[in-house]
Automatic annotation (TrEMBL):
The AAA+ ATPase domain, residue ranges: 189-356
Family: Belongs to the GSP E family.
Entries under SUPFAM superfamilies matching the protein: P-loop containing nucleoside triphosphate hydrolases (SSF52540)
Protein name: Flp pilus assembly CpaF family ATPase
Length: 437
């Protein structure tokens, strides 16, 4: 359609109508041809399938679109022209009905087209840039590799809960009554929060729910390597939100910065927020050099900031954060300085788990621990108070109220005293079987 003389003046709706008319004309021609040679015409179901396939190729993501339209799929794993593996929301894994490409080269060509036309900005996928990370139009996250693996490989992670609140997470069993109230209090009292857990445990979803608690009149920014939080796309998106996305840049290097030409890093975006009267930042995921500027921002004028990090426990998360900050700091920063900065910058660590357990009524994601960062102890390690933690004995892995925070002034000053922690239902979780996530 690119050479159609009216294309530039047609609206998206007009273009779709024009395409649909062309498809219907072609199907009518095919029906006449079949009748001429004595063959059976296409059934209505076959015609509808042809229409969907053509429209998916033009407007959607080609043969990938059918997998993204499946309601119970969470993860899609593709290796070349093999039939994709699908991980369902209940944890089960099954094969798709058919491959999404007839050859490995065709899959690469599909990915190149998607990277160029279906992201927030054009991205390359070539032998020079063999890694592709982007958000798809429906909010799913795509990660792909070529050349550095035997065959092109794709993983697509779908986010089932986007317009989500703490009440929603309480309903599906991710948090208890007391944890929901405490998390809400953390946001309103402007405590800095680090959400941790293994991949696919729900860290981004919980971060979305926490960000929804930020006052509508507050100016804040979200920083991500690829858009995933999607707060700016919600029907009731905050008016004072700056949604920022890093940019990978080209294969050429800018000698003045040491970055790829056109590259914009999370660290650069974070420094820019300091000039934009932003009161707090929400970072989708801390992976590397951005750890140090994030900690500095948390300790110097951006209380109430939040981020996520892959880790196996609250203590492990802080160690990983310190290592990442040290790697980005250079030789002039000592371990003790970064450790002190982390202890000052992070107020609470919220750790999540995903497992199958009788107490859950099957498989589920849940908050297992909320730890208060108190200080650096005599051996130079960060000390933690477990406000919520799983009880000993292994009867239930979900977090239960253990103790009051050591530092409570910020809650009282913000008008959110922690008296709710004495409620009889503080450890009430939804009944098994209610979870839908």
């Amino acid at each position: 359609m690119s050479d159609h003389p009216r294309r530039a003046t047609l609206t998206a709706s007009d273009q779709r109508q024009l395409i649909r008319g062309w498809i219907e004309d072609e199907l009518a021609s095919e029906t006449r041809r079949r009748m001429t040679v004595g063959s059976s015409p296409l059934s209505r179901a076959d015609e509808a399938q042809v229409v969907r396939a053509i429209e998916s190729t033009i407007w959607g993501l080609g043969r990938l679109q059918a997998l993204l339209d499946l309601p119970d799929v969470e993860d899609i794993h593709i290796t070349g022209s093999d039939t994709p593996l699908l991980r369902l929301r209940d944890g089960a894994v099954r094969r798709a009905a058919e491959p999404v490409a007839d050859s490995d080269d065709e899959l690469i060509a599909q990915l190149q087209y998607i990277a160029a036309h279906h992201g927030a900005s054009e991205r390359a996928f070539s032998s020079a840039q063999p890694m592709l990370n982007m958000q798809l139009p429906d909010g799913s996250r795509l990660a792909a590799l070529r050349d550095v693996v035997p065959r092109p490989t794709v993983t697509i992670r779908r986010h089932r809960l986007v317009d989500v609140t703490l009440d929603n997470l309480l309903h599906v069993g991710t948090i208890s009554v007391g944890i929901a109230l405490f998390l809400r209090a953390l946001v309103h009292a402007r405590r800095n929060v680090l959400i941790t857990g293994p991949p696919s445990v729900g860290k981004t979803t919980l971060l979305r729910a926490l960000a929804r608690e930020i006052s509508p009149g507050e100016r804040f920014a979200t920083l991500e390597t690829e858009y995933e939080l999607d707060l700016h796309r919600l029907p009731r998106a905050p008016a004072l939100l700056y949604a920022m996305q890093a940019r990978p840049g080209s294969t050429e290097t800018d000698s003045s910065t040491g970055l790829r030409a056109g590259e914009v890093s999370l660290s650069q975006l974070l420094h820019q927020t300091l000039r934009m009267s932003v009161t707090r930042v929400v970072v989708g995921e801390v992976r590397g050099a951005e750890a140090l500027p994030i900690l500095k921002a948390m300790t110097a004028g951006m209380p109430g900031s939040m981020c996520t990090l892959h880790a196996s426990s609250a203590g492990d998360a802080l160690e990983r954060l310190i290592v990442a900050a040290l790697e980005g700091a250079g030789p002039n920063c000592s371990d003790s300085y970064i450790t002190r900065l982390a202890a000052t910058g992070i107020d609470y660590v919220v750790h999540m788990r995903h497992m199958t357990h009788p107490a859950l009524g099957g498989a589920g994601r849940f908050v297992a621990e909320i730890a208060e960062v108190t200080d650096v102890n005599e051996v130079g390690a960060i000390a933690l108070n477990r406000i919520f933690a799983a009880p000993s004995g292994g009867t239930d892995p979900r977090g239960r109220f253990q103790m009051l925070p050591q530092r409570r002034d910020a809650f009282d000053e913000s008008g959110v005293p922690l008296t709710f922690l004495h409620r009889p239902d503080v450890d009430q979780w939804p009944e098994p079987g209610r979870r839908a996530w």
